[in-house]
Design brief:
287 residues; mainly beta; 4-stranded antiparallel β-sheet; 8% helix
Amino acid sequence: MRPSRSVHNRGRLGAVGRVGLLAAVALTPACDGRQLRPALSPGPDLAAAYDDPTGSWSGPCDPLAHPCAPGQRCFEGGCVVDNGGCTTDEDCQNDSFCQCTLGGGGDGGACRGGACIPWGSGGRGAFDEGCTTPSFLASEFASPAIKCSYNPDETAGSLVTPIVADLDGDHQPEVVFASWPDGFTAIHAADCKPYFSHRFNFATSNQSQLAVADLDGDGVPEIVGINTADELVVFDNQGNLAAKSDTPFTYDHNTVNGKVLDGGNWGAPAIDYYDAKPPREYGFGGK
């Protein structure tokens, strides 16, 4: 999975986009190597550069005598994060821009010696001005409105994440979930009317997570869960049991003096092509 790229929407983001952008900016990790380091003169200052607590060179760099630490590159005498090469800004990841270190770029022709340099280093400013948007007030946010709800049994509750998928093939989503103590339900997202409602004992009083995927490639999804015996169970798109594993999966329980204290399996099936070819495989985690 590639790291997130710099955003270049140039003011076209809506309210949701602005929220995502602000969150991305707030979560950008700080890195001492991003800023250009001031030149150090010979003497005690130069010696101090070798006393960096990380054990790496932190003073003026050059590729031969004083190379930067792994994952960094020498840029204008200072170590910055190495984000790879480039020919345009679009090639750069991790909030960086393309610096043509040997010339070219833009009206100057093809970029030569392109390097992705973190914003705040070089001569293009502290941040990408194309990523800025007008400010907005908290009052612009509207409180979420409940479209519909489903709770026929006031004593039941659900501690699992609802799974959203088109179960009946009408190109409209259904919501499938397990509930305490043995509920297994799917509802139409448009009006919360039941699509199916069954009884089934999933692991840990129906507090283990479900998953949905088209397992056999026929265009119809299956629902996957874990039963109370820690066995894989597969249901068709209408919630009917279709298959069960021959053996349970195992995991290390948290025990004290032989007594299990971990509360059982709250794990979730993970479905993917783990060997990069069909059919899909399953992964589980126990807690």
